[in-house]
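Before a computer can learn anything about folding, someone has to put a protein's shape into writing. The outcome of that step, for a single protein, is printed below:
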Amino acid sequence: MFKPFLTLIRHDILLTCRQAHAWITPLLFFVLVVMLFPMALGADASVLAPLAPAIIWVAALLAVLMSVGTIFKLDAHEGYLDLLLLSQQSLSALVLCKIGTHWLTHCLPLIVISPLLGLMLHLHWQQAVALVWTLLLGTPVLSLLGGIGAALLIGVKQQGLLLPVLIIPLYVPALIFGTGTLLAVGGGLPVNGYYAMMGALLLVTLAFAPLFTSLALRVGVSQV
């Protein structure tokens, strides 16, 4: 029953591993953007620590945005996407597999390295732990929402800044609650409400984004 979905996940992971630049470039971008702030503002903890949550979250958002547009592009060019659309399996489930693979190959490395970058920006260890949890809850939302935009624009050859303009407004709630959680931890305030809101945002996005993405794919492929 799950073999077609596991095969799709394995196919996408192997394809990404063979094209190392596909996941290394966003990771390097994430690291470099975060490292630029200590160079520009200096190493003073009193300056960097209050800005660290926003710096890391904005850098992660932009890094995900760099890669999310390629979720379906290569499959569309190779004709593999047409096979997915003709498959007897649920298109929403197949889309969820592809977005899940994108999260594993592009977002998970960001999460792994984020505590080190947080410590470089003088986050204390409680905030570093909260950073990992917020990224674990928030980056799937970024991938899921980005998949909708990538599917809608799959038939557009010269996308330019169209994808960021379309997707960034949808990213604002995750950005607000992600940075808000870290600021609350730093200020010694209760954070259960922030985690609950991020969890609810993830569940709602998980419930509706694959369906909207599958519908957008059918529209986008018809325009290719």
About this structure: The chain is about 85% helix and 0% strand. The two ends are 31 Å apart (CA to CA).
